[in-house]
């Protein structure tokens, strides 16, 4: 009797170890996350090759690749298309597409072939109420310890905000390095939050802050001023 049981995957959550896998990509075979040990990773999926929104996204990611590399961040794309489709699509992008001043864009980061949808299922990228044959627009930010730190999902009709994805990487790295948190709409160079609440102390404590870089709006809401970078 044929076994028709469908294997189910639990969608990974923030704080979970990133699921491991081996895959073929446009940059060769990879073992994930072992091949990227010590790096931050942006693993993102797109619905299909040769589609307009996905094309603008790949051109933007590729144009920003050097910026992400300076943040010790590896880009990895995925769709359920074949490696041959990936290669043909990326060649078309480089040779024919010009968008917002970007042209001759070469995508150098790995793009995973996932015809079996094995990787997409492990990461909850296949969402049946949308499609059973395409991945949604998912973004997983994974830290150097292979722990999932941020998850973003977008509908097929909405392209991603790449400035926000970069901002998330910078904010997470700063939070880890300095044990701080970042407020709403935070941008690099702006004041940061001192957790836990109340760690800034009383008004009298603030007066004794020799550097004058801490201040509180209330007992539960304290900030640290960011000092301008010396040129």
Strand content: 15-25%
- The string of secondary-structure elements, in order, is EEEHHEHEHEEHEHEE
According to DSSP, the number of beta strands is 10
- The level of helicity is 25-40%
Sum up the overall morphology in one term: globular
CATH domain fold name of the largest domain: Glutaredoxin
CATH 4th-level superfamily of the largest domain: Glutaredoxin
- Name of the top-level CATH class of the largest domain: Alpha Beta
Q: Outline the biggest β-sheet.
A: 5 strands, mixed
Structural class: alpha+beta
**Low-pLDDT segments:** 1-6, 201-208
Q: How many separate helices?
A: 6
Give me the CATH architecture of the largest domain, please.
3-Layer(aba) Sandwich
Mean pLDDT: 89
Using only C-alpha atoms, the radius of gyration works out to 21 Å
Observed structural traits:
231 residues, three-stranded antiparallel sheet, disordered N terminus, 10 strands, Glutaredoxin, alpha+beta
Give a verbal description of the structure:
Mean pLDDT is 89; it is low at 1-6 and 201-208. The protein is globular, with a radius of gyration of 21 Å. The chain starts with 20 loop residues before the first strand and ends in a 7-residue tail after the last strand. The chain has helices at residues 52-63, 65-70, 83-96, 118-122, 162-178, 203-207; strands spanning 21-23, 30-32, 40-45, 73-79, 111-113, 137-142, 148-154, 192-193, 214-218, 221-224. Helices cover 26% and strands 20% of the residues. The protein has 231 residues and is α+β, with helices and mostly antiparallel strands.
């Amino acid at each position: 009797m044929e076994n028709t049981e469908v294997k189910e995957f639990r969608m990974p959550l923030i704080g979970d170890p990133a699921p491991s896998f081996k895959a073929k990509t446009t940059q060769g075979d990879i073992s994930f996350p072992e091949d990227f040990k010590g790096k931050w990773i942006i693993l993102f999926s797109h619905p299909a090759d040769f589609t307009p929104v996905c094309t603008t996204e790949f051109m933007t990611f590729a144009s920003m690749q050097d910026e992400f590399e300076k943040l010790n961040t590896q880009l990895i794309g995925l769709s359920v298309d074949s490696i041959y489709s990936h290669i043909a699509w990326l060649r078309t992008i480089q040779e024919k597409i010009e968008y917002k001043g970007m042209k001759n864009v070469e995508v150098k980061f790995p793009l995973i072939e996932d015809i079996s949808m094995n990787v997409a299922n492990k990461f909850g990228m296949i969402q049946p109420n949308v499609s059973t044959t395409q991945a949604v627009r998912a973004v997983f930010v994974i830290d150097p310890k292979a722990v999932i730190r941020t998850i973003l999902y977008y509908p097929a009709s909405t392209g991603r905000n790449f400035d926000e994805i970069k901002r998330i990487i910078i904010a997470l790295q700063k939070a880890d390095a300095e044990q701080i948190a970042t407020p709403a709409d935070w941008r690099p160079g702006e004041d940061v939050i001192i957790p836990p609440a109340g760690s800034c102390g009383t008004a009298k404590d603030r007066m004794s802050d020799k550097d004058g870089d801490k201040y509180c709006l209330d007992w539960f809401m304290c900030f640290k001023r960011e000092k301008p970078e010396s040129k």
